[in-house]
Amino acid sequence: MKPHKLAALAAFTLMASTAHADSVSIENARAFATAPTAMAGGGFLTITNTGDQDDTLIGIRADFPRVELHTTEFTDGVARMMHLDAIPVPAGETVSLEPGGLHVMFMGLRGNPLEEGETIPATLIFENAGEVEITFDIVKRDMAHSN
Amino acid sequence: MKAVIFGTTTLVAAAAIGLYVWQSTSGTPNPCGTTAIAGSTIGGPFELVSETGETVTDADVITKPTLVYFGYTFCPDVCPLDSMRNAQAAYMLEDQGLDIGTLFISVDPQRDTPEVVRDFTDNFHEDMIGLTGSPEQVRAASRAYKTYYQAHEDDPEFYLVDHSTQTYLMFPETGLATFFRRDTSPEEIAATTACFMGQLT
């Protein structure tokens, strides 16, 4: 009885994780190379919820003293950056973390700048899809100006 | 401290309102587009610390038409974007044979050492000047340019700083020519700056 139950549980877990992994797709995860003495760097990515259930990005883990989800709001020409606890990703929709808006903030570089050509392994944590492993490519900051 | 900050915000708001009123009532707009606030006192003397740790004044660093921006290097997104944009405008003008300066003034004197500011600015343009200073020096410079900044006080190391994002076009002799919002493209900044430079030569 017991092995049977475990097998059933394992099967369920496997099914669940497969379904969940299929429900979000991540593209273009990148971070910009920083100056040698930089204390923080920004990460960007595009999340598409391919499932039929709304989801929420509730966190990110990576090997830095602190990693957070942030957004920037502009009021009367003043930029206010804020820590977010959650980024909703509704069913069927795409949410972009792009320069000038939503972004991942890698903090506490402490002499280990983000260098072009290197990568940052990270784990996105979704309310429904669970944990999704991704890799940020560190690229040179592009010259395109966006807001 | 709070009163000072609100005072600064009010000044910026008043300056912005003044600009709109002036623009809408002026019969002969400047052909270079949005232009200086009538009777503006934006700009003026400041004393800050250079990338090499020396005390410098506005006269030392604004020796040619210069784009002046206030930000902080811990900011991973907005400040690099705006600094990159200003650097791009400088490169575009350089291609036209016009020499301008770019200036980044830190509003985070606690974390932005001369070395950090130097590295940050070198990322965008080899001639971009980065300045920092004591909290008092930075406060005085920000006040002279009527910019707003306020550090969040929730974390000793990883705090964020709210700050104004406009870029000023300053001339050594005549002071403020105009300012650019952050949604202005490098092309527009280059064109407007070239126009003002043409008027003054």
Report a brief summary of the structure.
The complex is a heterodimer of chains A (147) and B (201). With 147 residues, chain A is mainly beta.
Describe this structure in words.
The complex is a heterodimer of chains A (147) and B (201). Chain A is mostly beta strands and 147 residues long. In chain A, 15% of the residues lie in helices and 50% in strands. Chain A has a single domain, classed as Immunoglobulin-like. Chain A is built from one helix and ten strands; from the N terminus they run αββββββββββ. Chain B has a single domain, classed as 3-Layer(aba) Sandwich (Glutaredoxin). Chain B has helices at 2-25, 58-61, 78-95, 114-122, 135-144, 186-199, and strands at residues 47-49, 55-57, 66-71, 101-106, 129-131, 149-151, 161-164, 167-171, 175-180. In chain B, α3 packs across α6 (186-199). The longest helix of chain B is centred in the first third of the chain and has 24 residues, at 2-25. The termini of chain B are far apart. Residues 1-11 and 13-27 of chain B have low confidence and may be disordered. Chains A and B meet through β2, β4, β5 and β8 of A and α1, α3, α4 and β7 of B. β5 (78-84) of chain A pairs antiparallel with β7 (161-164) of chain B, so a sheet runs across the interface.
